[in-house]
Amino acid sequence: MKKFILLAVLLLAGAAGTYAQQENTDSRAARKAERERQKEETERMEAALHAQAAKALEAKTFVLEANEVVFKSGERAFVNSNTNFILVDQEHGTVQVAFNVPFAGPNGIGGVTVDGGVTGFEMKTDKKGNITCKYNILGTGISAQVFIRLPKDSNEASVDISPNFNSRTLTLRGELVPLEESTIFKGRSW
């Protein structure tokens, strides 16, 4: 009788283990399917944002809202995207950087804001779908070449600003958005 009870307990334990394993396999498959669905949804959203950014570049009405500034020396600073940006509105452009510092700076918000005219605007798309854009911005406080790189399937762009009169190249990284959707705050310009 003891053998029979022991055998029955072992069979029940084995059946419960098999059921738990089957339930665990089903759970893993469901989690994998959910991850795949989320990945596809993210890819669709990024492709839509890229298309919107590319359209804004073509129309020359865009803003790159920077959340990171990289200096010539390689130092990086994470900054507020509302006050650090590159703006192009047809033939007019603005470059603004503002750091979290205790003094107001020339623009009143801790940095510099310069306006100028946009000339020589060129845009190219390579075989992989990456977009590069370059133009000159000339004004009272600025004379520089601007190079924009927008990778395929993303609206995260990188902009190099190369002044014509010195070698203080500055790189801004952030989201490229249409001008009408931007959330920037512009300081005093000179």
Would you write up a description of this structure?
The N and C termini lie far apart (98 Å). The protein is 31% helix and 39% strand. It is an alpha+beta fold. A hairpin with a 5-residue loop joins strand 7 and strand 8 (156-163). The mean pLDDT is 85. The protein has one domain: Lipocalin, CATH 2.40.128. It has one helix and nine strands. The chain has an eight-stranded antiparallel β-barrel. It has one helix at residues 2-59; strands spanning 61-71, 76-78, 85-89, 92-98, 111-125, 131-138, 143-150, 156-163, 170-178. The longest helix has 58 residues, at 2-59.
Question: Domains counted in the coordinates: how many?
Answer: 1
Shape: elongated
SSE succession? HEEEEEEEEE
Number of E-state strands: 9
The overall pLDDT, averaged over residues, is 85
- Helical content (DSSP H or I, runs of 4+): 25-40%
Structural class designation: alpha+beta
- Determine the oligomeric state from the structure: single chain
Low-confidence segments, given as residue ranges, are: none
Cα gyration radius (Å): 27 Å
Q: Per CATH, what is the topology? A: Lipocalin
Strands of the largest sheet, in order across it?
A: 1-3-4-5-6-7-8-9
Query: Strand portion, in percent?
Result: 35-45%
Helices, by number, come to 1
Task: Please report the distance between the alpha carbons of the first and last residues.
Answer: 98 Å
